[in-house]
Amino acid sequence: MPDSGPTLLGIDVLWVATIMAAIATLAAVFAIYTAITVRDPMAKRVKSLNARREQLKAGISASTTKKRAKLVQQNDATDRMRGMLSSLKVLQDDQLKESQQKLAQAGIRSKDWAYAVIFSRLVLPIILGGGTALLIYGFDYFPDWSPLKRFCAFAAATIIGYKAADIYLNNLITKRTDLVRKGLPDAIDLLVICAEAGLTVDSAFARVARELGDAYPELADEFSLTSIELGFLTERRQAFENLAYRVALEHVKGVVTTMIQTEKYGTPLASALRVLSAEFRNDRMMRAEEKAARLPAIMTVPLILFILPTLFIVILGPAACSISDSMLS
To answer: How far is CA 70 from CA 86, 113, 224, 290, in A?
Structure first.
């Protein structure tokens, strides 16, 4: 039998190094694949915006609510959910409006999915809670658990089932809001340039959306939709209010307030937006400084758990291998 390589604590060092090299190679191949197969982030968004444009055109030209209802193709699944919720008398207008706003803030344009969110709050607790109760009490899957522990597991599964849709939506809203916050100062600067160049408000929003489409696709999506609504809605104020409705960010509400006051009183748009841009950039710098100040405390645990043991292995590993081989020989 051939001699084995050097060992450390009974583990073959060459075998471990081979596995780590294979993992590093797979990671490099995956990184190259993700870099090569980058998709256009604006293709799907432009398609949805064009569909929204057609809906707005048809909605304005329609004379009756029956014609407007035919414009949007209803989903059969959401229709069945809505019918079931209505029959059970659990569908409330406030709850529906709140779910629709969360969907809009998460970047989901279809309001019909609000029925799916409400339906999940009704069904998922039954599925998860009933399944957990069946495993714990019916099949006695955890016989060593105390009654209190079993009840806590059942209650946790039921609560998670009720909050699962809200947790998912809140996660999407948080990520989208952070992405919009990063690109808002640059967008305001471009709006200032467009306003000083003499462009109209809707043309300025469309131009900013085209310029920021690759860097900040979420913000470009919102600005594009606002530009479309400015061109087709009867009240321009409603288009700005819809922007604040779709983005859960106080800075956007400040921009919307400024745009509405400019439209109403005729105040200079460029100077007001320039002040807002400076405030947003200061806020972004303060957030960066805050994260930088927290970095030493955050890096303490990874340093102790991952970096220092690796450093000790690299420094003391060869000496330990030599000592182990000398003692065994």
So the answer is: 21, 18, 25, 51
